[in-house]
User: Fold this.
Amino acid sequence: MEQAADRPDRAELDRLPTKELHDAAMRLALARGDLGFLWRLLHDIPAAEAAIGRPEQGTADILHVSALINEFLHAGEGALAEALRPVYLDYLTKQRR
Assistant:
């Protein structure tokens, strides 16, 4: 089993490109069956959409779960990934403990 000391700390994680950070968080959550994190990500996508100037997309996502799931599947790409970067950093840092 991997020890906390073997895992990157927040500063190391913060140096990763956002796509790699997203992928690492998703791999870890899926491997652990961490539905709480996945649900948090789904919950945070509308706010991230609003933060990048697409509030109408966030509203549409709330009203249409299928759109939200689509955003979830692509949350590691582009401006949306950048807006969700703190979520990935927070999750990976907390899992280090």
Notes: The chain has a mean pLDDT of 82.
